[in-house]
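Work Package 3 (structural annotation) set out to generate three-dimensional models for the target panel prioritized at the project kickoff. During this period the team completed the workflow that converts sequence records into discrete structure tokens, so that structures can be stored uniformly alongside our sequence database. As a representative example, we reproduce one entry of 172 residues exactly as it appears in the project archive.
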Amino acid sequence: MRLFGGSALTDDDIAVPRDRDLDQRGQSIPVTYVPARNTIFLSYALAWAEVLGASDIFIGVNSLDYSGYPDCRPEYIAAYERMANLATRAAVEGRQHLTIHTPLIALTKKQIIAKGLELGVDYALTRTCYDPSPRGEACGHCDACLLRLKGFADIGMTDPAPYQHARARQEA
């Protein structure tokens, strides 16, 4: 995605926003938006599903705690699903009807973390950070970290992932 640039996540010349008030989320599309990212992911998944003969694609988009990304909205996913069922040989020939599943789309970060814990996710092995250190430690200051930290705080837990500053693990 660096080839396209245009995002704080893919372009070293654009700074990742830090310590934004979480109430600012969704007011505008942030500089961390990566052009067509979920469209690209879904397109690869669509091609692979057709080859495998699979009718189900799952994607972890979220529209409640999201940061204003247009490709995380339910209407985007519904439109992509309609397009996908017009765009493949298998669908046109009636051999496949594709369904895109979004199990996280209407969950809060708290609910997502709780579901992961219920399923045995080891969150110490996961990262959500937009601006990690070279060693892979989360920054604790980007929107993704702030949402994750708030989610853990909301269930009364400390995030077990490594952070650049141990204090960030306690803040939310």
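The mean pLDDT is 87.
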